[in-house]
Amino acid sequence: MVLTRVFRAVGRSSLLEAGGASGAGQAQQQLARLPLRRKYTYRSGALKPMPEITPFGLFGVICTVIPGLLIGATISKNMANFLEENDLFVPSDDDDDDD
Predict the structure, then answer these.
(1) Where is it chiefly localized (predicted)?
(2) 68 and 74 in contact (C-beta within 8 Å)?
(3) pTM as predicted
(4) Residue 31: Cβ within 10 Å count
(5) Roughly what angle, to the nearest 10 degrees, separates helices 24-33 and 2-19?
(6) Is the Cβ–Cβ distance between 19 and 26 less than 8 Å?
(7) DSSP readout, 10-62?
(8) 41-66 residue pLDDT tens
(9) What ranges do the domains of the chain cover?
């Protein structure tokens, strides 16, 4: 989508440059034929309807994030216990002897 906008902008500028003083009318006719993406109006000029509003916006985010954090914490705790039980990763006690 971004590349389409870039190529359209390059095409419009090249049409204007190529037209010069004598072909300015022709270049503007070609520019008028290029489709523009309008976010809030149709081609006829009529306004588009309002977008649907999600009624549970913030509540939905909270209901998604909190279980995700809890599940992730549980998985990481279980993996840490597994690694420690199998002696794959055991924290060294040498760092605690600084007293």
Answers:
(1) mitochondrion
(2) no
(3) 0.41
(4) 14
(5) 160
(6) yes
(7) HHHHHHHHHHTTTTHHHHHHHHHHS----SSB-TTSPBPPPPPPPTTHHHHHH
(8) 888 888 999 888 878 888 999 999 99
(9) 56-87
